[in-house]
Design goal:
Helices cover about 35% and strands about 25% of the residues. It has 4 helices and 6 strands; from the N terminus they run αββββαββαα.
């Protein structure tokens, strides 16, 4: 996956917006809540939320590590996207999207059209 294909995939999910935060991080959000973040500078890396039960295993897998500042919320940093097949990575990102979406209020999900 490339930064361009990541952007295309994330924006294909319903009600997703993008925003640059902290000067150099491209954040993909639903309901103003981040579900995937990648750096606009340096090598291609990305972070996303994983289910609590998968966090320990993924955070020690080759190419992954606990995400700086977000590990306490069960986010991982994929420092080497070449270690993961594109379909597997899409699955992780979609899972992160669904985890964040599920935490939105019912009212907001309805407003966004993602019930």
């Amino acid at each position: 996956m490339t930064p361009e294909s990541l952007r295309k995939f994330c924006l294909s999910l319903p009600a997703v917006t993008e925003d640059v935060k902290w000067g150099a991080d491209l954040c993909f959000c639903i309901g103003e809540k981040m579900f995937c973040v990648t750096s606009l500078e340096g090598s291609f890396k990305l972070s996303f939320k994983v289910p609590d039960e998968d966090y320990e295993e993924l955070s020690v897998r080759e190419g992954f590590e606990p995400a700086p500042y977000m590990a306490r919320n069960k986010w991982v940093l994929l420092s080497n996207p070449a270690k993961v097949k594109p379909k597997e990575l899409e699955s992780y990102i979609r899972q992160s999207y669904e985890l964040i979406k599920s935490k939105l209020t019912k009212k907001l999900r309805k407003e966004l059209g993602v019930e």
